Amino acid sequence: MSLLRLIGSRVLLSLLTLLIVSALIFWILEVLPGDVASRILGRDATPETLALLRAQLHLNDPAFTRYLRWLAGMATGDFGTALTSSRPIVQILEPRIFNTVLLSGYAFLLYLPMALIPALVQAVRRDGATDHVLSALTLVLLSIPDFLLATLLLVTFVVTVPILPAISLVDHSSTALEYFRAMTLPAATLAIVMAVYAVRMLRDNLIEVLGSDYVRMAELKGLSPRKVLLRHALPNALVPTLNVTALNLAYLIGGVVVVEKVFSYPGFGSLLVDSLQLRDLPLIEATVLIAATVYIAANLLADIGAILLNPKLRASQA
Amino acid sequence: MTLSAAPRFTGERLPSWRRLLRRAPLSFRIGGAILIIHAFVAVLGPWLAPYGISQMGTGVPISGMSWAHPFGVDQLGRDIFSRVIHGSHIVLLLALSGTGLGVAVGSVIGLLSGYVGGWVDNIVQRLLEAVISIPFLVLALLAIAAAGPQLAGSPLLVILVVALVYAPRVARMARAAAMEIATRDFVMVARLRGESAWSVMRREILPNASSVLLVEFALRAGYAPVLIGSLGFLGFGMRPPTPEWGLMMAENRALIIISPITVIGPGLALASLVVGLNLFTDGLARLIGRAAPRSQA
Amino acid sequence: MRPGCWLSATAVVALVVGLSPLAHAAAGDECLKVLGYEWSGEKQSMDPADMESGDDAYHIFAVYNRLLDVDDNFAVIPELAESWGVSDDGKTWTFKLRQGVKFHDGSDFDANDVVYTFKRFWDPEVASGAPAVLGFLDPEGIKALDSHTVAFTTKEPVVELPVLITNKFTNIVAEGAKHEDLRLKGNGTGPFMQEQFQPNAPVRIFRKNPNYWQQGLPKSECVRVTVAQEPVTAVSAIKAGEVDLVLNVDPSVIQALKDDANVKLLETGASNSMTVSMWVDTPPFDNVKVREALKLVVDRQAMLDTVLLGFGEVGADNPVPLASPASYVKDAPKQDIEKAKQLLAEAGHANGLKFDLYTAEGVPGMVRMAQVFAEMAKSAGFDINVIVTPADSYWDDTWLKQPILTSAWSMRPPGEGLAVAYTQTAKWKETHWERPDYDALLLKANTTVDTEERLKLYKQAGELLAKEGGVVIPMFVHQVLAMRAACEGYEPRAQNFNLNFETVSCK
What we know:
Chain B has about 300 residues and is mainly α. Helix content of chain B is about 70%, strand content about 0%. Chain B contains ten helices and no strands. In chain C, about 30% of the residues lie in helices and about 20% in strands. Chain C is built from 15 helices and 19 strands.
C-alpha cells in the first residue's frame, strides 16, 4: 500500500512540476523577440502585414489572458489548435508520436542486447584483453557525437553498401516492411548512443555485485556460473542501470532531433524544435509538456522498478 | 544526451595529494598523460600549428590526407590539422568552464537546499525538476534566442548553456549529499553552536561533499566536449569560423563521402580528449575511494 | 525476474506495434520522386496567398497555374493568359484568358477567378504577404471585362506589370475559395491534382490532371515530394536511386555526384544574388570611401570558386547580372588592395577598421561567403568579426536590424531588382540608401515604353548603386540540381520557386 501512496504523491508533485514547466515556457516565449506572426511571414513581413496577421491570431490580447485561456483548455483536455496552421494539435501530434514510439521500440530492442551482452562479457572476463578492448571501444563510441555516427552509418549503408534507404520515409500508408527498413538506420544509431552509457555502468555494477557476499553464497550453494550470473548478479546490477534506461527513454522523445534530421525521419523531436522555431505557442506547450511527462514518468517507473527488483529496498518501503 | 544517475555519495574529506599520487591506478596515469598532452597542445597551439587559424588557400580545397595536410583541407582552403590544434584551447576552456560553472551553481543550490530542507527545499526541488524535464535542446534554443543575435556563438553563451544543462542535475546530487551530511554529529554540533546556515554549509558541508563534487565535475567535463559539438551541429553552439572540433565536424560533414578525414580528423581529437577525461575520472574516483559513477552528461 | 523474460516481453510488444501498419499499401513509389531541401513544417499551406517559403512551392506550383510564366531572362510566357496589351496611357493592362480551362473540381476557369485571386490579397482574413510586392496595383482597378478578359488599371503607368504580377503569390485560385479551406485542399488548374497533402507531413503526392490544358502534359502519372535538409542525405538518396530529382545540391557535395553515371547534374542561370549590405547612414559606412574600399577588397572569382565552387557568376555590386542587357558593365570590378588601403586611410582609418559582420545560413553559402569576405578584407586593414546567428530567426531578428550583414535576393527583373531594397519607398531598406536622383531614374524607367531608353535608365541606376551604394554583390548563385540519368525533360528555372514537374518523365 505504501508503494501506491508513494506513486500517488509523486504523481501529484509531477502535475505541479508540469504546471511550472508550462508557465516557464510561456513566460520565456513572451520575453523572446519575434512571434509566430513574424515567423510565418518571414522575410516578406512588413509592419502592415504583421499587424493584420497578429490581429487575426489574437496575439494582441494580454499575455496572461492568453495563458489562462490555454490553461483552461488544457484542464478540460483540449490541447487547442496550432497558430500556424489552425489544425487541432492532437491531429498534429498523433502521427509524430506514433512514429517516435515505433522508432523508440525498435531502438530499444536493439539497445538491450547491445547493452547486456558486452557488459556481461566484460564482467566475466574482468580485466582481461576482451574487457580492455570493449572498454576502449565504448569510450571511443562515447566520444562520437550522434550526428557524426548517424552520418557515418548513412554513408556506409546507403552509398558504400547500398542496402538501406537514406530517407526514412514513413507515413500512414507505409507497410510494416517499409517501416522496418526505414527505421533500421536511425534505430541503430540511437541504440548505439544509448547502449554506450549503459554498458559502462552495467559492467561496473556487475563486477561489484559479483564480488558481493550474496553472489558468493549462491556460488557456494553450487549453482552454475551461468545461473549465478543471469539469475542473481544481473537483476541486482540492473537496478542502477534502470535509471540510465529511464533517462534514455527521455532522450528518445526529445533529444533525437539530430538523428531525425539526418535521416529525415518524421518524429516528435523535430516537431518540438520546428514548433519552437515557429514560436507556435500552443504547439510548443503541448510538445514540451509531453516530453516532460515522459521524462517524469520514466523516472517514476525506474524508481518503482528499482523497488521491485531490489528486495532490500522493497523491505524498507514496506 | 542528458542527465544524472541515482545520486550516490560517500562523504570523506580528500586525502592529501602526495599520498594520492603514490597509489594512483593505471587509468588515472594514462588519462592524466592524455590530458597533459591536450593541455600542452592547448597552450602551445599557435606555435605548433603549421598554418593560421583561418588562413585560406593553404592547399587544394576539399582534399584528403597528405603529408602537408594530415587532416585534409576544407572547402575554404583551410588546413584542418592546424585548425584542430588552434581549437584545442577553445574546446578545453569551454568544456572546463561550462562544467565548472554548472557544478558550482548546482552545488550551491543543491547543498543549501538539502541542508536547509523544509519548504525551501520543496520549492527548489520542483523548480529543478521542471528545468530538468524540459529537453535540453529546448533549453538551449530558448537561451540562445533570449541572448539575441549579438551574443550568438559567443563562448560566454555556450558556457552558460552547458552550465544551464548541468546545474540542475548537479544540484540534485549535491542535495542528496548535503542531506546525508546534515545528519552527522559535527554538523549538529556546529548548528548548536549557533552558526548560520551559510557558514555551516561553507565550513562543514562543502568540504565533506568535495570528493563527490570533484568526481561529478570530472565526469561531466568528460561529456561536455560532445555536448558542445552537438550544439554546434544544430547551430546552437560555437559559430564559424571558430575552430571548435564539434563545429568543424558539422561544417565538413558534407565532405564525408569525398574526403572522410576532414571529419574524422577533428573527431579523433575529440575522441582522445573524451577518452582521456573519462579514464582520468575513473582513476580519480577509485583513488579517492568511491566507485566511478556512470552518469550521462 | 530473468533477463530472458524482459527481452521476449519487449520483443512481443515491438512486434505487435511493428506489424500494425501492415494493412496499408505503399504509395508514391511509382511516381516521379522529387526531393526538396527547404522545410517549413506546420506553416506549410496549399493557399498560394500564404506562400512564404520555398517549401510551399513544391506543392503550390504543381497544383496551380499563374496568368503568365517567366523565363530566366524575365521574358513573360503565356500560361493562363494567352495574350495581353496595354492602353495608350500605360495605366490599363488587359489580359485575354485561355478558353476551356477547368479547375480540378470541374468548375470552369474565367475572369472572375483572376479578379478574386488578386483582390483577396488585401483581405484582412487572408493576411497575405503579397501586398508588399504588389503595391503598384490598385485593388479597385482589377476588373473582369468579360468572361475571359481581365483589366488591371493602376494609378500610375506600370510598364513591366505583366512580369511584376508573375511572382510567387499569384497562382490562380477559384472564385469564392476560402482561406481556411485552401490551406489544406488545393483547387487549381495546374498539371497535378492534390492526392495527399497535409501540413508537416513527410510525403506529398499529386496525381496527373487528365484535363490539363497543355496537350501531352504532364508526362508523369504522379509526383511524390519529400524533403531532406542534410546535403549528405540528399546525395546518398539520389546515388542509391531512391529519388529521381534533387532540387538543390549543396556545392560541397557536388563532387560526390560528378563521376556517377547514373546521375545528371543540371545548372540554372543566376538564381539569387549574395550580398554584403551596409547602412549608408551609419558610421563607418556613411563614408563612401569605406564602402568603396569594401567593394575593392573582394577577389570575386576567387570568392565564387571557394564559396560556391564555381557554380555561379560574378557580380558588380548591383542586382543586375553582368550578362543582362540592363547591366552597366560587362566585367566585374577587380580586386585592388592597395587602392582599398589608400581609401581607408583617406577616410581616416589609416590604422585599420574593425566591425562586426552578421550572417546566418539563411541562404546556403552565406556563412562561407562572410568568412571569405572577412579574410579577403584583412589584407586591406579591415578587422571583420563574423557573427553567425541562428538561421531560423535571421530574417526576423537580425536582418534590417544590424548595420552590416550578409543577405541574398532571389532574381527579379531589373526594374524590380533595383527597386526592391534600394528606393526610398522600399519595404525592405537593407542599406538605408535614400537617393531622390536614384528613385527618379527608376521612376522614369518604369514609365518609359521604349525598351532601349528604359535599359539605359536601368544602367544609370545600376551604376549609381554600384559606385556609391551600400551593397557589395560579389556573385550570383546558380542552383545545381541532380536528376537520375534515366529521367529527362526537366527544365530548371533560375527562380527557385518556379517548379515545372510536368515535363519530366522517367524510365
